[in-house]
Amino acid sequence: MADSRLPPHRLGLIAVALVIVTLMVVQMQWGWLPEYREAILDGLWLTVVLMVTTSVAGFLLAIPLGLVQVKGPRPLAWLARGFCTLIRGTPLLLQVWLLYYGLGSLFPYLPGVRQSWLWPYLIESWPYAFAALTLSFAGYEGEVMRGAFAGVPKGELEAARSLGMHPLTILRRIWLPRAVQRVLPTLNGELVIQLKATPLVATIAAVDTYAVFGRIRQETYMVYEPLLLMALIYLVLAGLITLAFAAMERAGSRGR
Amino acid sequence: MSYRDMSIGELLALAPPGWGGALLNGLCLSLQVAGGGYFLGLLIGMAGAASKLSGGPVARDLWACYTTGIRAVPELVLILLLYFAVPEALNGVLTSIGVGEVSIGPFVSGIVVIALVQGAYATEVMRGAIRAIPRGQIEAAYSLGMSSAKTFRRITLPAMLPGALPGLSNLWLIATKDTALLAVVGFTELTLAARQAAGATKHHLLFLCAAGVLYLLVSLISNAVFKALERRATRGMSHG
């Protein structure tokens, strides 16, 4: 086992990589790290929270989006398809700015908004970040869910109907679980993409990992050290997502 | 005349004081960077797929590091990293061979960044498409005495195209959308142009929506073109 995964050339590559990392640690300046530890952890927390919450919310939105495209009234299906096209056809950065600068600039002029309970939230940046990331995930995943709903074998749905199940029961017991089961393997990639989308919120002044490192770069006048560490952090996060999914898949296949 | 009193038509007019010309300029830059990056990315992908499929063990591992690393790090971080690193590295090389420094504009750096990102994804797309070609077709070409370059041009390329086109069309759409990220390093492509117009005129919604419509048009037109290409590449195959 060990020698099949570690042939000599790979040992050599690992040695080279270790030399490079050691050189980086020794030659570059990392003295700023302790001072910014708290800030980095805070940023990391916001990144993870944004990724998880927007993925969950986006997925919940994607279910009806996919469903109405497969079996909904025409106008609703068109609306859902239009929404997916719109989201998938424009850059996320533009969507973030459109929500924050575009819609955000309209709110103060709406009568009554300034007095409402919503106002304290509307002047923050995270609700816009959350909304933009959620809508984006929903747009991409809605398309995937459409395929998943359409791909559930007809016979299973007919069998459920012939047993006299209510359409909603069919959806809850057969259609939805089978569709979700089909998209699970693709979720890994989608989550990594969502993770990679979160730094965009730094452009509207939400302080995530990317924003923290931007501040570090400005305050320490260093270019590469913060950027490399930040790249490493995202690399590790993406790796953790992939590992978690691999573990889940193994746990899932054990039962069968 | 202040922007406040201008109508939408006047604001979007091509000639100043309208900002339509600036938007179209941005769109042009976006498309050029996307096109250049996409083309270079395809070349990288071609090389990557070839060496991942038939290269030595070291080359294969190095390509794996490249594709995994690029695909796991946010494009925004890569853009910052490469935007600073590429000109510096290039100048380092040039000075060491005695040519002297050249200044690399944001345009070229942008293309290089997009190309490196695209290359990682293109490698995977092409590798998958090439692997889907029945082995016998390529062996038949070799047995007829074709050189490997000729085999690639006459057999592999046409045979992999139907399998690769959906992925490649997706990559082109990603390339056009990734150019928007260059706004963060101050390159005036479409998104930043829209933002500048919005900031100057205080008509945020109008200009950001206008940019959105332009992007949408680009995607819809590209989609149609790639659909047509796909139909052409798969003619003679059973659809189904």
Automatic annotation (TrEMBL), chain A:
SUPFAM superfamilies to which the protein is assigned, alphabetical: MetI-like
Pfam families named in the record: BPD_transp_1
Ranges where the ABC transmembrane type-1 domain occurs: 44-245
Keywords for this protein: Amino-acid transport, Cell inner membrane, Cell membrane, Membrane, Transmembrane, Transmembrane helix, Transport
Coiled coil: none
Membrane topology type: Multi-pass membrane protein
Main location (coarse class): membrane
Entry's family note: Belongs to the binding-protein-dependent transport system permease family. HisMQ subfamily.
Protein name, per record: Arginine ABC transporter permease protein ArtM
Source organism (scientific name): Halomonas saccharevitans
TrEMBL record, chain B:
SUPFAM superfamilies, per database record: MetI-like
Protein's UniProt keywords contain Kinase: no
GO molecular function, one term: transmembrane transporter activity
Record bears the keyword Cell membrane: yes
GO cellular component, one term: ATP-binding cassette (ABC) transporter complex
Transmembrane parts of this sequence: 20-50, 62-84, 104-122, 155-175, 205-226
InterPro entries: AA_ABC_transptr_permease_3TM, ABC_transp_permease_HisMQ, MetI-like, MetI-like_sf
Membrane-protein topology: Multi-pass membrane protein
GO biological process: amino acid transport
Subcellular location, principal: membrane
Keywords tagged on the record: Amino-acid transport, Cell inner membrane, Cell membrane, Membrane, Transmembrane, Transmembrane helix, Transport
Domain ABC transmembrane type-1: residue ranges: 23-226
Cellular localization per UniProt: Cell inner membrane; Cell membrane
Any Pfam family hit: BPD_transp_1
Domain of life according to the entry: Bacteria
Stored PANTHER family: CATIONIC AMINO ACID TRANSPORTER, MEMBRANE COMPONENT (PTHR30133)
Membership in a protein family: Belongs to the binding-protein-dependent transport system permease family. HisMQ subfamily.
Protein name per Swiss-Prot or TrEMBL: Amino acid ABC transporter membrane protein 1, PAAT family (TC 3.A.1.3.-)
Organism: Halomonas saccharevitans
